[in-house]
Amino acid sequence: MKSYHFLIFFGIVLLIYSSINLYIYSRTLQAIPAGSGFRSWFSWGFWILASAYIAGRVLERVWLSAFSDILTWVGAFWLAIMLYGFLLVLTIDIVRLVNHFSGFLPQSLFTPSGKLVVLYAGMALVAGIVLAGYINAISPRVRTLTLEVDKGANGMKKLNIAMASDIHMGTLIGPRRTAKLVNTVNSLNPDIILFAGDVVDEDLEPVIRQNLGEALTRLKAPLGVYGITGNHEYIGGADKAVKYLEEHGITILRDSVALVGGSFYLAGREDRAKNSYKRSPRKTLHELLSGIDRSLPVILLDHQPFGLGESAEAGIDLQLSGHTHHGQLWPLNYITKAVYEISAGYKKKGNSHFYVSPGFGGWGPPVRTGNRPEVVNLQLRFK
User: Fold this and answer.
1) Does an H or E element contain 272, and which?
2) Residues 67-90 pLDDT 10s
């Protein structure tokens, strides 16, 4: 991505981020009595928390340390607090506007003590939502599907797949979460293990420092462990990330196809982000699949679930994707539902099966309120 495109994008994001925080800050400050000692503490604390995530992510690129970790963790939680704080303050302002014309609220709520009660109740509500979301985020489920593929596979009757996407290994998804992923996947006794992109979370240095790749070497599947690039691999440097993952037992398919066990094809697309970060665009689906034996089943890994109709027309039997996180934080799932044909879950188009996983890890806040993280167990039955 060209530097000026990044600067424009970052500038827009920073403007939106700052505006939301300023709105929450100014409205919350109105509930704290003038002259209160808490008012000064609140001001300092608010802006330290609001700047922590950006400061932590910048600092870890030049000085990766326990201090940068603390900033990143605190700031990541703040992102969730900011979202629900914004929604709460906006809701209160809408209610106040309605009350301005109808007068249905008791006047006691508008006294200094009444405002503090509302403030403390709102803070407790947001804290409760974020805490529940954190517990949910570290409690992945196993999602099991049985699918029929109307093709023969050279004598193979069934295939047990363990699949995960959007692990985002790094500062926030560290040794415990990575070990939990490996243990969950291995407990399924899969024939093959597939990772549908965003295995690492941008910067590779926290992954190396915590030796997270060591856990990946414990993955067990007789037909192998395969993965593809996601947009976060490209943000942090795809070549470095791929090298690290392959050194730790994952075969990364980069616009390439593997014939597995002589029974089925596994095709892996480069992420769409390649078109922005590299001079050469990723292969078209037609180019990727040229020359293969179409009588055998074809499984496609494509991180971002765009162009599902193209995959169906190309005769893909099963496509596995991630990327959406299904919004990760409610109500952002309504946005991903509007953007993607499948925001999360299963759909069949013609003879093609599609599954989009909301992911195992997450980006930004270590919080999920819109859905459960998951490992997917797909049981394929061949003709």
Assistant:
1) none
2) 999 999 999 999 999 999 999 999
Q: Determine contact, residues 321/359, Cβ cutoff 8 Å.
A: no
The helix or strand, by DSSP H or E, that contains position 258, with its residue range, turns out to be strand 256-260
Q: CA-to-CA distance for 306 and 76, rounded, in angstroms?
A: 28
Domains of the chain (ranges, CATH numbers): 3-136 (no CATH), 142-382 (3.60.21.10)
Residue whose token pair is 């996407």 = 165
Q: Where are the alpha helices (DSSP H) in 154-228?
A: 175-187, 205-209, 213-216
Interval 4-27: pLDDT, tens? 666 787 889 899 999 999 999 999
Tally Cβ neighbours within 10 Å of residue 221.
19
- Please list the alpha-helical segments (H only) found in 188-253: 205-209, 213-216, 231-236, 238-247
Q: Supply 346's token pair.
A: 């299963």
Residue 227 in contact with residue 195, Cβ under 8 Å?
A: yes
Positive/negative CA dihedral, 269, 270, 272, 275: negative
CB contact set of 178 (below 8 Å; sequence gap of 6+): 167, 169, 212, 215, 216
Q: What is the mean pLDDT of residues 53-60?
A: 93
- Cis amide prior to 297 (ω within 30 degrees): no
